[in-house]
Amino acid sequence: MPYGFTDIETPVPLVDLDRLSVNLDRMAAYAALHQLALRPHVKTHKSARIAAEQMRLGAAGLTVATPRELQVMSEVTDDVFLAHPPLGAKIRRVLTFAEDVQLRVSVDSHIAIETLGAACRQRDQTVDVIVEVDLGMKRMGVTDPNDVVRLAGAVRRQPGLRYRGICFYPGHIRMNVEQMDSHLDTLSGDLRQVLETLDHAGLAAEVVSGGSTPAAFRMHHIPGLTEIRPGTYVFNDRDTFTMGACTWEDCALTVLATVISDAVPGQVVVDAGVKALGREPIRVSEGGGYGAVLDHPEVSVARMSEEHGILDISDSLWRPEVGEQVRIVPNHACIVTQQFDAMLGVRGDIVETWWHVGARGRHSPELAPPPLSI
Amino acid sequence: MPYGFTDIETPVPLVDLDRLSVNLDRMAAYAALHQLALRPHVKTHKSARIAAEQMRLGAAGLTVATPRELQVMSEVTDDVFLAHPPLGAKIRRVLTFAEDVQLRVSVDSHIAIETLGAACRQRDQTVDVIVEVDLGMKRMGVTDPNDVVRLAGAVRRQPGLRYRGICFYPGHIRMNVEQMDSHLDTLSGDLRQVLETLDHAGLAAEVVSGGSTPAAFRMHHIPGLTEIRPGTYVFNDRDTFTMGACTWEDCALTVLATVISDAVPGQVVVDAGVKALGREPIRVSEGGGYGAVLDHPEVSVARMSEEHGILDISDSLWRPEVGEQVRIVPNHACIVTQQFDAMLGVRGDIVETWWHVGARGRHSPELAPPPLSI
Fold this sequence. Notes:
2 copies of one chain form a homodimer. By secondary structure, chain A is of the alpha/beta class. Chain A contains 10 helices and 18 strands. In chain A, helix 6 (145-157) crosses helix 7 (177-200). The first copy, chain A, starts with a strand and ends in an 18-residue tail after the last strand. Chains A and B meet through helix 5, strand 11 and helix 10 of A and helix 5, strand 11 and helix 10 of B.
C-alpha cells in the first residue's frame, strides 16, 4: 500500500522511480546505438530487482566485485563477470556459484592464474578469464603490452581457464567532460598498442571491456572497445553531477533524513551521518562537503559524525525546523546503499515499493559462522 | 571448532580477544576507581555479546544512537540511554522498546520535548530526559546556561517526561593528550557555570554525563561529572593511537585482507577498500591514509576504491606476495563494524568465536517493508 514520507523512519535511501527509469533507458539506448555490450556493475545498487531491470533492457550480463554480489546476481542472469581476482578462500566459494553461471573473472598476476587454474581442474570446471590492463588508473592491471601477452599466454596454457580478452577501468577519467576527450585519446593510443601486440602474438582479444559512469557516453570514441561496465549511472550522485556528467535532475538516489537540532547557530543537524552517507569527497573540488539538500543544493553536509550530519545553512535563506524531513543527494551513491538493508522506491511524495540491498555484506545469512568459506 | 586464517574469506573484521579483554578491564577499573558510572556507547561494536561483557564488568547501563541499537541492547540490559533526540516516525518505535527498559533520551530543543511528551502521554509511558549541552563540540546542545535552564524546566513541566540532568560530548578534545588538560580546564569552567545556574533555578542535575574515548582517562578531573560514555575504547584504532590515547598493542580490531595485485610498481592492492575500512581520515594529521598494516605500521592504505585498498610499500622493505593475507588496523573502528554482519574473535592465529554485528543497519529483519516504523 503506498504511503507518505512522514510515516518513514529516517535515515533511509529513497530511489526516485521516474529518474531511475530515465537513467536505465538512456544507457541502454546508448549501448544499443553504438553496438557496445552493456554489462552494468551492480556494486551501486546491489539489488536483484534493479539488476533484473537492467537485463530486461538489453544488458549482455552483469559485473560484480564480491562473491556475495556473484551469489545474488547468479539468480538474475547466467552471465556474470567478477571483475576482481579471486584468491585464497574466495576461490572455492566463487567456483561454487560458477556451476550456475558462465563465470568470467579478471586477473593481473601469474599467481592468480595458477591458483585459479588448479582449482578449476580439481573441480572439473571451466572459467572465462580476462586479463586486466592498466590504462592510467594505476590501481590494478599490467601496463607493458608484453606483460599483457605473457599473462594472456599463461591463461591459454592453463587447462580449466579460457582466455577471452582484456579489461581496463578508466576511473581516473573523472574531470570535467570538456577535458575528457584528450584523456580518451591518450587511452585509445595505449589500448591500440596492447591490442596490436596481442594480435601479433596470436592472442587477439575477443572481449575488450572498459567503461565507468563519468566517461560512459564517450566510450564509442575508443577504437576496439566491445563492452562497457558502468555502475553509478542507475542513480548518479553529487560527484557525477559536479564533474558535469549528469544533471541535478538525473540524481535518482537521496537519503531521507530528519532535522534533530538547530541549537548551534548557522547550522542544523540531521540524523544522517557517516553511517548513512559515507565520508566520500567531491573529487573535482576540495571542501565541498559530503552531500547536498535536493531542493536546496546550496546547502551541503559540511561535517559529520557517525549518526549526525551538520548542514551549513549560512549561505541559504532556507531555515528547516526541528522534526522536518530533508532529502540529501549523496556524493557517492554506491557507499550509501552499502550502509542499508533496504531502499524505498518513490514517485513524487509517495512510497510505491521497496527493495532489499540483497548483495550488501559479505556472506549468505544462512552460513554459520558467516565468514567461513563454504 | 577453532580454525586458522587461511580458511577465511576476506575481507573480514578480526577481534583480538586478549586485547579486547585488556581494553574492557582497563576502562571498567578506571570508572570504578573514580566512582564514575560507566555507560559504554555500543556504536563501536553493535554486538549484544560484547555489550553483555561490558555489563558483566560493572557498566551502569548502555548508550545507543539508533532505534535498532536500542532494540538489540534492550535484550542485554534494562537501562539504555538513547543519546540522539527521537523525532518523527522514530518516536513510536523508540517508545515500543521503552516498555522493556528504563529508557533515557537526550534532547536539545523544545520541539523534541513537546513531541516526545505528547507521545508518552498518549501511550501512558514515562521516559527519563537529559538536556544536551554544548561544551565546545558545536554539534548538538545549547551553550547558554539560561537556555539549559529553559529546556530543563520545559522537561519538568511535561507529564510523561522525567528530568534527570544533562549530557555533553567532548568529541572536539582529540589532540595529543599533552594538550588535553588545558582544554579540559576550559570545559570544566563552562560546565560549572551550567551546573550552578541549574542549581539556582531549582533544577539540579542528578546525572552529568560526558566522556569519549580519547579523553576518557582524564574524566575524573571534571568536577561534577557522574558518568562517562566511551565507545571506541573496546577496540581502539589508528586514530586513537595517532593522538596518543592508546598504544599500537591496544588496537584490538583489524581487517583481514588478501593481496590481490602487485602489478603497479611501488604498491600492492588488497581486497579491503571503502566498503571494508571506511574513508575515515586520521584527524590529528593530514594525508595519513586510511589504515595501516598491523605488523608493518609504516605501510598505510594510501588510496582506496570501493573494494580495493592500495598499500604504499615505497617506505618499507616488506614485499607481500599476491595471495598473502594482511591485517589492517583501521583509522576508525566504528565505521568498519558497520560494513559487516559478523566479526571473528581470534587468539593468536586461531579463530575461536564469532559474533553478529546485530545492531548494524536500521530495521528489524522481521519488519516488511523494513523501513516502515512499527
